[in-house]
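CORE FACILITY INTAKE
Project code: CF-77B
Contact: R.S. (postdoc)
Sample description: multi-component assembly, two entities in total
Requested service: structural model of the whole complex
Turnaround: standard
Below are the sequence entries exactly as provided by the requester. Do not edit them.
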Amino acid sequence: MSAELKQILTTDGIPLEISLKRAERKNKIKAFLLVAPLLFFLMITYIFPIGDMLMRSVDDKMVTNMLPNTFKSMENWDGTEMPSEEIFEAFYIDFQKLVEEKREGKLSTQLNYTKNGFKSIIKKLRRKSKTFEEGNYKEQIMAVHRRWADIDYWRAIKRHAPSYTTSKYLKGIDMYKNEEGKIVSVEEDRRIHRVLWLRTLEIAFFVTLLCFLMAYPIAYLLATIPMKYSNLLMICVLLPFWTSLLVRTASWMILLQQQGVVNDFFVMIGLVADDNRPEMMYNKTGTYVAMTQILLPFMVLPLYSVMKTISPSLMRAGKSLGGTPFVTFWKVYFPLTIPGIGAGCLLVFILAIGYYITPALVGGASGTLISNQIAFHMKSTLDWSFASAMGLMLLTGVLAIYWVYNKLVGIDNIKLG
Amino acid sequence: MALPKYTQLHYRIWHYFYIFICSCVFIFLIAPLFVIFPLSFNAEEFLVFSEGMKNLDPDAFSLRWYKDMIYGTKNPWGLAAKNSFIIAIFATLGSVLLGTVAALGLSSRHMPFKGFIMATLISPMIVPLIISGVAIFFFMAKAGLAASHTGIILAHIILGTPFVVITVTATLSGFDHSVTRAASSLGSNPVNTFMKITLPLILPGVISGGLFAFVTSFDEVVVVLFLAGLDNTTIPIQMWTGLREQLSPTILAVATCLIILSTLILVTAELLRRRSERLRGINR
């Protein structure tokens, strides 16, 4: 049979199979060429820069390049006792060069990330080293400050010897490599990042749950009432969806402030005393309330589009077979809406976990998320490699959920409006 | 949602309870937007309803914050609005152009690695903005485009294209390809076919994608925070600074204008969606 098929020729005398394949390939190339401009644009401006973040987060060449002689002489130093004169001399040579180039400040910033206390002793060393005499650098450097005689600080320097480091990632989960090279957690009261990760997950989870609990009833209402009413009510969902995020956050700031409308209302119905108005903003409550309202449309729309496709006759059939309204709903209707629930929950969770603006404005200190910490390190401490590392850790989590979303819902099924 | 006459009492109660819950959720969704309206006409400097406002005293209302928004001394809103519109318009044009062409390729059934490429093209919408902001900032700093309009426009094209790709592929999913084949068989070249046949049919999808891209750019603050210099300030940046430092009623005047703008966009988007569904023969 297959031999016969191969015999079929097109009018050009080319076997049909080859001709078909050619046409297919041509079509493939055509389709790809249409996508290519956007794909390459995104590759260059977006995907590669994310890769660049990865490089930055593990890159430790800066210190390696600043102290080349020191690290060379440190190769055989095992860190059990104070470094030898040879290492001190190499360090002195490197340091003099840095001072000449005025780069010792950068060194102190980098070393300070690894171990606190480097900043001041490097400043001091710069001042004193001007009057150093030749030879016996070990004693001269150790005399500058007692920390220079502390072996821990030399071990901290040695940890910078490799060009690549995972220390930023460890720092992101409040761990570090100690002097013996073991990975340990920092002291309990300094574990700020773990608290933040947990809080981010917690807030994202509860915001998703709240959104689901609020969106399900109204999506059901929208899907079951007559068209002319549902169109009108749909505006209540779509108007916030199209309104600026900052406008919505601003309105929550007005509503939730101590003299605000919500507090006025609580006082009016006698829930709280006038002189004892609760603080509802600049804490977790503010973050929860504002984020739930802002993300609610993202839950309603997928639920609505699934519910719209469920035939009302199914419920009628369930009831006519003797089910009470609740049983029919639970056994017939609810299972059919699960795809919509999955889509909505994943979407809201993905958006909530990376939220930045709203927590920064209404969250205060106790309601900020991991994104705020990333922004803080980008803008204030300028520890960009740490910001990159935290960003990539967050990204890994988001991409994992994105992958699940793609498997369950299919990325081309995202509905907008 | 009228109940049949034979409904039992406890279902009746449950039904009204359900309606009550739904009303609460709707109020929760929409009410925050309506607080801004009256307060932006406040004659006083405080962001609370004054006694006069509660009694509907005409003296308690004024347009002073709108005047401040437009004529105020050293006010940043004029420049910010100009920048916002320039950036949003160019970013929308770029997103629509790149996104529509890519969507045409993606909806071809010959497209290789469709799922993977689609996931890549949509990713700027899914990746947290703060990460996009950091990555784009690194790129723009290297390319020397930080603190320039071009840099911000390119960044907003990145963020806007996913919306165009999604809406246009959705429109193309109901597209009858035999009409383009008919055009070709009648001797039309591909470009002509696209302009005369395909584009008018997918136009609603293209425009609604463009609206999304416009709103995304117009409302974007995280990436601009990393990229903007003093000359590139935008409306969201000014609002962000204002909200962080001091909530002034001028911000509410701006917010009111933005709500009106978004209402207009919503109406346009809805009309387009209906037209698109009619064109594609989906009757509801």
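Facility notes:
- Chain B touches chain A through 92 residues (CB under 8 Å).
- Chain B has a mean pLDDT of 86.
Invoice: internal transfer
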